[in-house]
Design goal:
The complex is a heterotrimer of chains A (71), B (267) and C (384). Chain A has 71 residues and is α+β, with helices and mostly antiparallel strands. A two-stranded antiparallel sheet of chain A has the order 1-4. In chain A, strands 2-3 form a two-stranded antiparallel ribbon. Chain A is globular and about 35 Å long. Chain A is built from two helices and four strands; from the N terminus they run βαββαβ. The termini of chain B are far apart. Chain B has a single domain, classed as 3-Layer(aba) Sandwich (Rossmann fold), CATH 3.40.50.970. An eight-stranded mixed β-sheet of chain B has the order 2-1-3-4-6-5-8-7, with helices on both faces. Chain B has 267 residues and is α/β, with parallel strands linked by helices. Chain C has 384 residues and is an alpha/beta fold. Chain C has two domains: 194 residues, Rossmann fold, CATH 3.40.50.970; 114 residues, 3-Layer(aba) Sandwich (Rossmann fold). Helices cover 38% and strands 22% of the residues of chain C. Chain C is globular and about 70 Å long. The chains are: A alpha+beta (71), B alpha/beta (267), C alpha/beta (384). Chains in contact: A-B, B-C.
Chain lengths: 71, 267, 384
């Protein structure tokens, strides 16, 4: 997985869904153990590693694994 | 877990107490990035007051004092003056800083003591359930202003400027990168730094004042109702000015005291 | 504990407030934050001049709330710290004092009492804050309070206060008053004093974990522990535990027990001719002076009287008082208030005749007034 959302801490606020310029986040329809509606990632290959999801997340629970080789 | 979260968060205090989408988490996020980019984790201690913003540094794996309401700044002053080579960050809210803590705030700014004060402005007293705050807009309906707020709000930035703060900035959680940059600048700045952050409180202020519960939509409200300093339209008072207002060098208080001590003991 | 040599030992004539400052500096005070208030301002003034000479910091804060909070921050930053005020300022400091109690911060607060209530009598003495010292802040707790009765004691008790604050990780009050604060007397500055110093653990993740002493470890900021110090009820790690009933109960009880289980070491009483006394005068602070004089005169007149001076008014020295007053049947308690400490004594010495000698308005008891009271007690006893 390139983009990890830590379900232990995510509160389903949805900010990542709006902030990603490549629309990689969407609602998954599933709930975490804490009961929040979780986001999921789609088309991760489109990720440009801008880091906005990491910076804007209020629960600091999104981790973007950066490619070692620059595109 | 995210790498920075691993490095900076106090594991046994998680998860955050913040509501989903609360700006406090974003401000904590930006602070961690600012500290990490400067590489000064070992040089920092934090204080905070009471309120939702008071919880921000509790989650940091640093020396942290969660003080009583309105007194985060004098505690920070005591810390700074006994360890002047350290950096002290104060997390405070609009009520904590310019309500009950107002007197300490203006005097600390007047002294130009080297602190970085991050005032989270969510326009309401959130932790206690949604009462009005010194920054609540006129006519806004809250739990203690059911007929509409009869008081004009304070502008924290103007108070800071008038009190003599030597670094003053205002951003919002929408402007998260600029906020991170300002926190960095404030940490490097030797003097009293004040950063006001417009922050969404989806549960209390969102519901009562902004009529908007979605955190992203509240961030859009901040985006659309603020204007960068220097880009204001002439005569247009409808938007909140954000940006850097003051950035100057003046004699810092703890240094001044150290100079006097040196002089006394040399003679 | 370590012994510290003093460079200014010898005889000095000092004002009480000055002596308090000198004692603080001798004890290693490196931070003073205060706000001017009569009759305590001389402590701030003297500190402003003296503390930078010993590489310390003086700040005149914007109010007393700033002062009490600044000294707490300073102690966690590594500097022994003190503030000084009078009744009205002490009232303002109560919330901060509570924060010092729950965080177990070693600080010293001097209250040079004046007449109250409210603005009261700024330039007259009283002992009206005796309950405020113990019960002024909200919540249940114990602390240590000294009542100096001379300029020498203003010096000596201040040093003791710093030591006990460090030893028990508790705020210590010095309950002085305008008379002892403003009087000038000759004092002896000793050649060396003992300073309490405890070793900090090398790495502490549990700043509130205790052993059988019930006293938490001596830790500070900037030692690498990454401490979380919180005013909410907390667990051993300092993390919020206000929602956990058993942890909360344990903490609140421990804050009192850490003092009460060491009450014999903490409490300090002096007695004069109590062994065969049927009447004993018990008091504290500057009222001890006319009281001792009256007792001596009464003894010369053949009355079997004694005297107890309470140096540590809190925690209340119940056991020691019971031991010292065993043979007596009457107790007189002169105080410059409407009779407060008298109630505490009456509560524990229930088999005795306890007589209050309240005095408000700004005067202090005269020896002849106390002598006449003693005489009256004996006369009544003979008649009944």
């Amino acid at each position: 997985m390139k983009i990890n959302i830590d379900e232990q801490y995510c509160q389903g606020c949805g900010i990542c869904i709006h902030v990603c310029p490549k629309n990689i986040f969407q609602l998954s329809g599933k709930r975490s153990k804490r009961g929040y509606l979780m986001p999921e990632t789609v088309n991760e290959e489109n990720c440009i590693e801008c880091g906005l999801c990491e910076k804007y997340c209020p629960d600091i629970c999104i981790n973007v694994v950066k490619d070692r080789v620059k595109k | 877990m995210q790498e920075l979260a691993e490095k900076y968060l106090r594991r046994n205090s998680l998860p955050f107490i913040f509501c989903p989408g609360c700006g406090d988490g974003q401000i904590l996020n930006a602070t961690i990035r600012a500290i990490d980019s400067l590489g000064i984790k070992d040089k920092i201690a934090c204080t905070s007051g009471i309120g939702c913003s008071g919880w921000i540094p509790v989650y940091l794996d640093l020396d942290v004092m969660h003080t009583v309401h309105g007194r985060a700044i004098p505690v920070a002053e005591g810390l700074k003056l006994s360890a002047p080579e350290k950096d002290i960050i104060v997390f405070t809210g609009d009520g904590d800083c310019i309500g009950i803590g107002g007197n300490h705030f203006i005097h600390a700014a007047r002294r130009n003591i080297d602190l970085t004060v991050v005032m989270v402005n969510n326009y309401i007293y959130g932790m206690t359930g949604g009462q009005k705050a010194p920054t609540t807009p006129l006519k806004a309906k809250t739990k203690t202003s059911p007929y509409g707020n009869e008081e004009r709000p304070f502008d924290g930035v103007q108070l800071a400027i008038a009190s003599g703060a030597t670094y003053v900035a205002r951003w919002s959680t929408y402007h998260i990168q600029q906020l991170e940059n300002s926190i960095k600048k404030a940490l490097l700045h030797e003097g009293f730094s004040f950063i006001e952050v417009l922050s969404q409180c989806p549960v209390q202020a969102g519901r009562n004042i902004f009529k908007e519960k979605d955190p992203w939509k509240m961030m859009q409200i901040f985006k659309n109702n603020t204007v960068l300093k220097g880009k204001e339209k002439k005569g247009d008072q409808s938007k909140i000015v954000i940006g850097e207002f003051v950035n100057k060098e003046e004699k810092e208080y703890s240094q001044y005291l150290a100079d006097i001590r040196r002089e006394i003991n040399e003679n | 504990m370590f012994r510290k040599k003093l460079s200014d030992s010898g005889l000095k004539i000092l004002q009480g407030n000055e002596a308090c400052t000198e004692g603080a500096i001798a004890a290693g005070c490196k931070f003073f934050a205060g706000y001017p208030i009569t009759p305590a301002s001389e402590i701030a003034e003297h500190m402003a001049a003296r503390i930078p000479q010993s590489d310390g910091v003086f700040v005149q804060m914007e109010d007393e709330l700033g002062s009490i909070n600044a000294i707490i921050g300073a102690r966690w930053g590594g500097s022994k710290s003190m503030t000084a005020t009078s009744g009205p300022g002490f009232s303002l400091m109560q919330e901060g004092l509570g924060y010092g109690i729950i965080t177990e911060t070693p600080i010293v607060i001097v209250d040079v009492q004046r007449g109250g209530p409210s603005t009261g009598q700024p330039t007259s003495s009283s002992q009206q804050d005796i309950y405020q010292a113990k019960y002024g802040s909200h919540g249940d707790y114990e602390l240590i309070a000294y009542a100096p009765s001379s300029v020498q004691e203003m010096y000596d008790f201040t040093i003791k206060a710093f030591n006990q604050a460090e030893k028990y990780r508790v705020p210590v009050i010095i309950l002085a008053d305008e008379i002892v604060g403003h009087m000038r007397e000759r004092i002896v500055i000793p050649e060396e004093i003992e300073i309490e110093k405890k070793e900090s653990p090398s790495f502490c993740q549990t700043p509130y974990r205790v052993d059988e002493s019930l006293i938490p470890p001596s830790v500070e900021f900037f030692q690498g522990h990454n401490l979380i110090i919180d005013g909410q009820l907390h667990d051993e790690r300092g993390l919020r535990a206000a929602h956990l009933i058993d942890v909360s109960e344990r903490l609140v009880k421990r804050l009192s027990e850490k003092i009460l289980q060491n009450i014999d070491e903490i409490t300090d009483l002096e007695s004069y001719q109590t062994e065969d006394a049927s009447l004993i005068v018990i008091t504290y602070g500057s009222v001890a002076r006319p009281s001792l004089e009256a007792v001596k005169q009464a003894r010369s007149a053949g009355l079997p009287v004694g005297f107890i001076k309470i140096n540590t008014v809190w925690p209340f020295p119940e056991k020691k008082l019971q031991e010292l007053t065993g043979k007596s049947n009457s107790i007189i308690v002169p105080e410059m208030n409407l009779g407060k400490y008298y109630r505490e004594i009456r509560g524990v010495l229930r088999d005795k005749n306890i007589i209050s000698m309240p005095l408000v308005g700004g005067n202090i008891h005269k020896p002849v007034e106390i002598f006449n009271k003693m005489r009256e007690v004996f006369d009544n006893a003979r008649i009944s």
